[in-house]
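Renewal narrative, Specific Aim 1. Our central claim is that a sequence can be written position by position from structural information alone. The example that follows is taken directly from our test logs and has not been curated for this report. It begins with the structure tokens describing the chain, in the order in which they were read.
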């Protein structure tokens, strides 16, 4: 495995534990410059990011490297020369359709430039229909995306796809963009995560480029907005998005949206946006079933030119059940591990590597997570879901919410109810807090790891 794929694998893992925003901000433009037994050198795009990596993420990085079979004596951080960054941007097979884009120019120096830069991802051409495995759980979403790619703006507008984390939403909606581009290279496809949309909108206001911003989005032939739930609570941005939506819809331009829940369950989304989102087609996407996961594992291994024995495929597909990104992460870890140690991938190696984390039960419930969390912190379930707000109870409660979210992908209102809270914003806040904290608080991370192992 070369350094690039090793780093890909490490980043894939790190991404799982961080919010999208955090991950993009701190890790997007990092690189692995050198690996040997003595030293690993990691490149960061600027001093600001370098410091954050050293201060906040050093432990996470060294742990994740170790999981991937790399345990050097020390880890060094270096600032990447600007030229290497630019070259890399051109090298990456990413179709950028954000030209004519507003916001601060990327040539501003220092931190702003790299931050803005890292928020701007266009379509990634690795996401295609061809390499998407269709099976129960995703076939409806696949069919709708195919239909939209054939005739954008005609049938399902907007196309709204919702479902849990890591099940292929981004892959599918980007595949639509790539397919339309393959047919018509002049098509103006704008792909944006809602976090990026919010960021650009705020920048546009700050730098007084509102009209550029509006013009850019309104001139799209196809607008793909990913993870729209992050627009929740941002009223001004929602208003701007509402107008963009109307302009495009009236002009019969295709709009594709993904989210973690159905429109009506997105907290603090204005009613008029909810109703717009329900106009077209809403599709509930599920995690693929066991057979489909097996095919996915095989396909991903074959992409590395590796054939896996059948019992290993089944082990992996059973080991990670509801998150394909995690499944890929486990596979990459295994491949890296085997390459470093010159082993043939096998179920035995997988058990040795992931062994003590037994297969998770198929029907894990929120209640079980609450019970295990209470037990870990020596609390009773009644205390954990009760009215008390002492710090010793509040933090475990927040951790329970976080684990329910990451394991079961339950909606915020439901999570709040499981923990005896009336207000779903408590759940949003708690989950966000823990997902940030676990990046740099080893105690929180240890608790989460220990509880998950018991599940
Ligand atoms: P989401 O946006 O739902 O969180 P992603 O689209 O980012 O999930 O998918 C996570 C990873 O899993 C991606 O690398 C994607 O290519 C892969 N993946 C998910 N579903 C499939 C599938 N059915 N076939 C092939 N790869 C898949
Ligand atoms: Mg996604």
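The sequence written for that structure reads:
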């Amino acid at each position: 495995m070369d350094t690039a794929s090793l780093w890909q694998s490490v980043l894939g893992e790190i991404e799982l534990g961080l919010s999208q925003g955090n991950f993009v901000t701190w890790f997007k433009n990092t690189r692995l410059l050198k690996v040997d037994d003595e030293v690993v050198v990691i490149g960061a795009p600027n001093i600001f990011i370098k410091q954050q990596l050293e201060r906040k993420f050093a432990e996470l990085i060294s742990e994740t490297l170790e999981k991937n079979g790399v345990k050097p004596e020390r880890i060094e951080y270096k600032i990447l020369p600007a030229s290497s960054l630019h070259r890399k941007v051109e090298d990456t097979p990413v179709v950028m359709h954000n030209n004519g884009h507003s916001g601060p120019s990327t040539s501003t120096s220092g931190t702003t430039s790299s931050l803005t830069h890292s928020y701007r991802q266009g379509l990634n051409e690795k996401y295609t229909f061809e390499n998407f495995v269709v099976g129960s759980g995703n076939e409806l979403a696949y069919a709708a995306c195919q239909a939209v790619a054939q005739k954008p703006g005609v049938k399902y507008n907007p196309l709204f796809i919702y479902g849990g984390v890591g099940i292929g939403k981004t892959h599918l909606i980007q595949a639509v963009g790539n397919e339309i581009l393959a047919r018509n290279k002049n098509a103006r496809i704008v792909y944006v995560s809602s976090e990026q949309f919010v960021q650009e909108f705020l920048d546009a206001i700050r730098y007084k480029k509102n009209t550029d911003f509006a013009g850019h989005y309104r001139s799209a032939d196809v607008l793909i907005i990913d993870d729209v739930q992050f627009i929740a609570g941002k009223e001004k941005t929602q208003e701007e998005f509402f107008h963009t939506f109307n302009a495009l819809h009236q002009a019969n331009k295709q709009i594709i949206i993904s989210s973690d829940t159905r429109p009506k369950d997105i907290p603090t989304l204005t009613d008029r946006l909810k109703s717009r989102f329900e106009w077209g087609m809403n599709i509930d996407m599920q995690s693929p079933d066991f057979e489909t996961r097996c095919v996915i594992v095989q396909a991903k291994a074959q992409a590395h030119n590796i054939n896996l024995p059948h019992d290993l495929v089944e082990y992996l597909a059973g080991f990670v059940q509801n998150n394909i990104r995690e499944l890929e992460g486990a596979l990459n870890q295994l491949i890296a591990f085997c390459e470093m140690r010159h082993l043939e991938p096998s179920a035995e190696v997988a058990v040795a590597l992931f062994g003590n984390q037994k297969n998770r039960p198929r029907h894990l419930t929120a209640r079980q997570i609450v019970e295990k969390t209470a037990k870990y912190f020596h609390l009773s379930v009644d205390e954990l879901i009760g009215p008390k707000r002492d710090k010793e109870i509040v933090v475990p409660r927040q951790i329970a919410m976080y684990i329910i979210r990451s394991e079961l992908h339950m909606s915020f209102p439901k999570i709040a109810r499981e923990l005896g809270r009336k207000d779903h914003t408590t759940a949003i806040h708690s989950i966000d807090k823990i997902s940030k904290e676990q990046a740099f608080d080893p105690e929180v991370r240890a608790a989460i790891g220990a509880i998950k192992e018991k599940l």
